[in-house]
Amino acid sequence: MKYLLLVHHNEDTFSKIPEAQRKELLVESIQLCHQLDGNGQYVHASPLQPEATGIVVRVRNGKATVTDGPFAETKEQLAGYFLIEAQDREDAVRIAKLVPGARIGTVEVRPIREITGLPGEEECP
Fold first, then answer.
1. pTM flag (> 0.85)
2. pLDDT value for 52
3. What is the distance between the terminal CA atoms of the chain, rounded to a whole angstrom?
4. Where does residue 55 rank: exposed (0-12), middle (13-18), buried (19+ CB within 10 A)?
5. How many CB atoms lie within 10 A of CB 78?
6. Are the C-beta atoms of 119 and 10 separated by less than 8 Å?
7. What's the pLDDT tens digit per position in 27-73?
8. How far apart are CA 99 and CA 44, in angstroms?
9. Which of 10, 60, 67, 111 would suit a FRET pair with 88, their CA atoms being 20 to 30 Å apart?
10. Are 80 and 46 in contact (CB under 8 A)?
């Protein structure tokens, strides 16, 4: 089963971490991706640009509204993700504990809903 591990942290706090330590967190994340790939559990992963670089698109009653970020007054922002294959929830949680971002923020573990009809997807049972 696929799980999305959503990595959240405080962007202001993260920017105050010394550059060498931030680079080490990235190196650890890349190493984790290689470890997961070796176990057949890696699907995809990537850090995200800061929240202020994003936009929100809403369509209500046929009218689109586009808003530049930041979007919410929150302590933590979505910083990146790991899309993994896990045997079950407990396996996904075990992997989430290995994510370096969990040491400076939080990792939300969410199962992916399997649906049919998407490009490149095989039919689901």
1. yes
2. 86
3. 13
4. exposed
5. 17
6. no
7. 999 999 999 999 999 999 999 999 889 998 999 999 999 988 766 66
8. 14
9. 10
10. yes
